[in-house]
Design goal:
Elements: H1 2-14, H2 19-36, H3 38-52, H4 59-82, H5 85-91, E1 92-95, H6 98-104, E2 110-114, H7 120-129, E3 134-138, H8 144-156, E4 160-163, H9 167-176, E5 180-184, E6 194-198, E7 201-205, H10 208-216, E8 220-227, E9 233-237, H11 253-273
Parallel strand pairs: 1-9, 2-5, 2-8, 3-4, 3-5
Antiparallel strand pairs: 6-7, 8-9
Helix pairs in contact: 2-4, 3-4, 9-10, 10-11
Length: 287
């Protein structure tokens, strides 16, 4: 319950502060985490060394990852109150949304593929505000109150949550109804992914997006909400990835791996472009 009360305390504070001061408060808490959480600090530094292929100290960049996480939490806890369409019009640059519009005209839905980069939660909310409601596959938190808190924040912005244990059936139904399903494809939560090359090393990559696109014919549309230096954002849509074929029955392993390799390359590119915005606080690669 400690984590729940910490989040509630942080939410109570940031909801009552002007946004610039809320960011400073979030950065202060993140600096404390950086100082006192040796395990997280070591994991982030090692991840950065792999991304950048360097043995340098990287303390400044490591601290910036923690601060970006603090900013992410501030926005997540405030978004229902402080972020509306006016904020989107003034502070969010939307790039290549025509890609999504063209895909939806096919009538097969779309898989919005993202990663733990920038603020993926706020990105989902922005899509809803733009008139593209979507369903998000989310791993339940271990603590029920924390899980309820996070889901309440998402649902208050119009984002529908799909627990992992019901994801397959509900996602297939949504895609066949020309709806959007969002997945973060840079972390495997189920230990049923595939080991692929990722940023020069082997990593367990989730295969859900590849399975959904092959089974339904719904294209994958990579989408990332990245942070600019002034805490404005860019919502970036990448070219759609089409499935090799559509099948309700047997899926060739080679087709699955090919699809996964295509979308992992997109994620790799974004992580290399925004290394301090990849909010990964655990050892990532397979030893």
């Amino acid at each position: 319950m400690f984590k729940f009360y910490l989040y509630k305390f942080a939410q109570f504070i940031v909801m009552r502060l002007p946004l610039p001061f809320a960011y400073r408060f979030g950065e202060f808490l993140s600096d404390l985490q950086y100082l006192f959480s040796f395990r997280d600090r070591q994991a982030v530094r090692n991840n950065l060394r792999t991304i950048l292929n360097t043995d340098e100290n990287l303390s400044t960049m490591t601290r910036e990852v923690f601060r970006n996480f603090g900013r992410y939490l501030v926005e997540f806890f405030c978004m229902a109150k402080k972020f509306d369409m006016n904020f989107v019009k003034e502070k969010v640059k939307i790039c290549n949304i025509d890609i999504l519009k063209r895909v939806l005209k096919r009538g097969k839905g779309a898989i919005i593929l993202t990663a733990h980069i920038g603020n993926w939660e706020f990105g989902a909310s922005i899509l809803c505000m733009l008139g593209y409601p979507l369903m998000v596959i989310a791993l339940p938190h271990k603590e029920r109150p924390v899980n309820d808190l996070f889901n309440h924040q998402r649902q208050s912005m119009g984002v529908a949550i799909i627990p992992i244990h019901t994801a397959i059936r509900r996602c297939l139904e949504a895609l066949k109804s020309n709806k959007l399903v969002a997945v973060a494809a840079d972390r495997d939560f189920t230990q049923s992914g595939e080991v692929l090359d990722f940023l020069g090393r082997k990593a367990m990559i989730p295969k859900g997006a590849a399975l959904f696109t092959i089974k339904t014919g719904a294209p994958i549309v990579p989408c990332f909400l990245v942070r600019n230096q002034d805490n404005s954002f860019s919502l970036l849509f990448e070219e759609a990835i089409d499935p090799p074929f559509e099948s309700e029955e047997y899926i060739e392993d080679s087709s699955l791996i090919t699809m996964m390799q295509q979308y992992t390359k997109v994620i790799e590119e974004k992580i290399r472009q925004f290394p301090t915005q990849w909010l990964m606080f655990r050892p990532f690669w397979v030893k």
